[in-house]
Amino acid sequence: MGKKAKEIIKMDAGKVIDELKKAYCDEWLAYHSYHYMAQNTVGKATEDMSEMLEETAKEELEHADELAKRIVELGGTPVADPKKWGDNANAPYPYPPEDMDDNKIINVVINAERTAIDVYQKIAELCQGKDHLTYQLACHILQEEVDHEEDFENLTR
Ligand SMILES: [Fe+2]
Ligand SMILES: [Fe+2]
What we know:
Layout: H1 3-7, H2 13-39, H3 46-73, H4 85-88, H5 102-127, H6 132-154
This protein binds fe (ii) ion (FE2) (2 copies).
């Protein structure tokens, strides 16, 4: 990041980097869990469920990419070791249910999405008026997490 780009951040960039790094780990864990579940669905709605999970998984991976880009811009390094993702995330790995029951899968996703909403809400609040670019990124991801929660909540109605 250039001199001017650093100057316009009116807060501790280290604090922003820390929060983005935790969110980066959350996204990888969600990506892996959703992708795994997409590959291993067994319920009646297998094809639809699988497609929805895969689409959502891809968006989580995009989030990880977008976060990584901002972490690097701010001078940080995203957590490289997959073994460390669990310990450095905001939430534990969203474990796929053993029996891969559709309703349990939906619950796993909804819980993970609600955590994600809290995470990006918090990052947006932290950066609002102080680091516009991270604020904008947090709002963009927040919108997609809100959509994910709704998509999976709709399956329970
Ligand atoms: Fe995400
Ligand atoms: Fe999501």
